[in-house]
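# nightly structure sweep
# worker-07 picked up a monomer target from the shared queue
# config: single-sequence mode, recycle default, output format = structure tokens
# input follows
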Amino acid sequence: MKIVMMGSGGVGGYYGARLLQAGHDVAFVARGAHAEAMREKGLRIRSELGDAQVRAKVLDDPAQAGGADLVVIAVKLWDTEEAARAVARVPGATAVSLQNGVDKDDVLAAAVGRDRVLGGITHIAAVIAEPGVIAHTGKLQRVTLGELDGSRTTRLQAAVEAFRAAGVEAIASDDIRRATWEKFTFLTALSGMTALTRKPVGDVRAHPATRAMLLDALREAVAVAQAEGARLDAAFAQKQLEMMDTLPAPMLSSMAQDLLRGRRLELPWLSGAVVRRAEKHGIAVPAHRAIYAALVLHAG
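# output follows
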């Protein structure tokens, strides 16, 4: 399969390298020092599942790939619209976003056409450790893909099999909308509360006041998801809180890390999206409104 990774950071770099190891024709769209290091020395993966060093075909623009079977979008959320326009120039390619958030597929569909879009989410902890080097923490590397209408198609199965052949846990979902909202609910609460407090999840879940706000944030996102038509049940929030009890206590969300390092935040597409969609449905979301108001001046 011919694949273009639109974004070659933790997610795009890791999965692209694994797909390349499996024999797929992979091109990486990257920029800056990371791109230069990839061109000069290749792309290196550090992982408990096995280190890797691959020769990387690095592009400035996905259109330089010519055609492709699949384009995987793995850029920061503020780059989604620009990335979607660039992907539209890759003829014939199916596009799937592994980004966070619930706006991404609509943005992608507006640029390339809904018929070219697969829904997708990923669960992985991977970052650029230094230019040309991706560090994967733990053993979790899961990709869930699905047609937006819930159907089973040849292209969906081909994409799932490509990831499986690369040693990645890959799931074909009949309800990718629900899966996307499930991840979004978990992520917005975790990222919002660890960024708001500047504390790791262990501290947030341990104090009664912050634990209560964490559960409120989960419940608010579930209410918005239900209003948007996603099939999440009322018990989902409590289950996700229990899931957070299993996370390593020192864990900080990527948004909290970005805040502490003075980087731009994905806040408008996380708690900001909860607030925006809640207003449309007349739903009160005081926890996410507080998170957004407290962090928006730092969002960049």
